Amino acid sequence: MFGFIKNSLSKTADAIKSVVPKKKLTFSKDEIEDILLEADVEYELIEKILNETYQEKITRDILRSKLLATLAYTSYKEPEFTAPFVELIVGVNGAGKTTTISKLALKYKNEGKKVILGAGDTFRAAAIEQLTLWAKKIGVSIVASAQGHDSSAVAYDTIDSAKSKNFDNVIIDTAGRLHTQTNLANELKKIKRICDKAHPSSPHRTILVLDGTQGNSAISQAKAFNEMIGVDGIIITKLDGTAKGGSVFSIAYALELPILFVGTGEKSEDFIPFDKYEFVDTLLD
Ligand code: GDP
Question: Subunit notes for this chain (predicted)?
Fold first, then answer.
């Protein structure tokens, strides 16, 4: 596990190591500022960390605990639910939603669960095709309709099918065209309402997928989605390809939301639960 996160964060870790000599044990505030900026931590958060620190020399341990404190919201408690467990996956196009759904589905399947996907991004034919291919590849069921059909009807049918066939997990894809924000907000709200109608108290978890290579610009996207429908947790993708891993701190801190998993590659297996201790240690050790 540790190796996975280490490899996937190697670009961010390299960026940090270029400013943090390995054997150095204490840092001045200016040095800390450089380190965190290099990892793409947002300036406002860096200032907060530094303002709270009274010592002139900051040790690695203090820096470690400060970084961990910004990830205080990363623990997540699963809600009480009656099966099937229904998850709604939201995020802008290209963030890695479809790939992430396949990763989550494979994880559940490997735990012995019966999984069904709902191809709720009915706006893009490619999204329906892509998700159908993933379902086939990893061997899980899917409910898909033609492009242009009502996405909430797909959500309803998926949950209905899951209930009648005793599935454990329902994962519903959604559209991600943030440029038509009002339409998207209405569509997502409707899907949420219909989920509750099909299976009271669902969706049990709404997950926002964010592209880790976007660094801090993902924060405004995340805020938009959170305001639109309310998000319970985040999955950050493509951390393998970026030196901007430090934005994880800013995202978790700005949104006060837990980071549930991180995507570490393009395959369905490239997916790990987010562990804040491992994450911080990988960056600093
Ligand atoms: P969607 O439009 O949000 O559904 O995005 P896709 O799932 O189609 O992903 C967009 C691109 O990002 C594809 O080329 C994926 O292979 C790639 N991708 C998704 N997740 C990851 C990841 O964790 N790491 C890397 N390197 N690529 C990823």
Answer: Part of the signal recognition particle protein translocation system, which is composed of SRP and FtsY.
Ligand 1 atom with the smallest distance to the CA of 103 is: 20
Indicate if ligand 1 lies below 6 Å from the C-beta of 266.
yes
Give the pLDDT of the chain (285 residues) as one tens digit per residue: 445 566 667 777 776 666 666 667 788 888 888 888 887 888 888 998 888 887 778 888 888 888 888 888 777 788 889 999 999 999 999 999 999 999 999 999 999 999 999 999 998 899 999 999 999 999 999 999 988 899 999 999 999 999 999 999 999 999 998 777 778 999 999 999 999 999 999 999 999 999 988 877 788 889 999 999 999 999 999 988 777 778 888 888 888 889 999 998 999 999 999 988 888 887 777
Give ipTM to 2 decimals.
0.99
Map the chain to HEC letters.
CHHHHHHHCHHHHHHHHHHCCCCCCEECHHHHHHHHHHCCCCHHHHHHHHHCCCCCCEEHHHHHHHHHHHCHHHCCCCCCCCCCEEEEEECCCCCCHHHHHHHHHHHHHHCCCCEEEECCCCCCHHHHHHHHHHHHHHCCEEECCCCCCCHHHHHHHHHHHHHHCCCCEEEEECCCCHHHHHHHHHHHHHHHHHHHHHCCCCCCEEEEEEEHHHHHHHHHHHHHHHHHHCCCEEEEECHHHCCCCCHHHHHHHHHCCCEEEEECCCCCCCEEECCHHHHHHHHHC
C-beta 177 within 6 A of ligand 1: no
